[in-house]
């Protein structure tokens, strides 16, 4: 039934005018972003649930807002792959295989370290989105590129907020 690992069942083969090679490359790139979005969402929620200290309320609310924003990208990314005729993630196991964002299973992480780790993860995500944008551009997929442009801006905003939240009083970086 399948010609290659990126082939889809004929019942799921959404018509597109993009070349199959472009669909395959874009699908791989976007599925990796999707896996990372789920990993970053769960890590952000983990830190949201386990934040402590004198800035608890501010950090708790910041991380809740950011996790909601990250989760909101998942459906758009997955549906973009399907609109192209590709297949998308089907399981937690597949997410674990594709994710490039590292999990954090520590029993306790100091708040400033949590925010710094999330800042770096968001920076990583923005770079991966730029790389996927380039693949979409080369494949002639302006719709995926457009979606990624908005997500890059949101990711940079999260990075900025996390950076500012970790600065020492007096403006010196932590």
Automatic annotation (TrEMBL):
SUPFAM superfamilies in alphabetical order: Ferritin-like
Gene3D superfamilies referenced in this protein's UniProt entry, alphabetically: 1.20.1260.10
Pfam families: Ferritin
Keywords for the protein's UniProt record, in alphabetical order: Oxidoreductase
CDD domains: DPS
Domain Ferritin/DPS: from-to ranges: 29-162
EC number of the protein: 1.16.-.-
UniProt superkingdom: Bacteria
Keyword Oxidoreductase: yes
GO molecular function per UniProt: ferric iron binding; oxidoreductase activity
InterPro entries, per database record: DPS_DNA-bd, Ferritin-like, Ferritin-like_SF, Ferritin_DPS_dom
Family: Belongs to the Dps family.
This protein's name: DNA protection during starvation protein 1
Organism: Afipia felis
Gene assigned in the entry: dps1
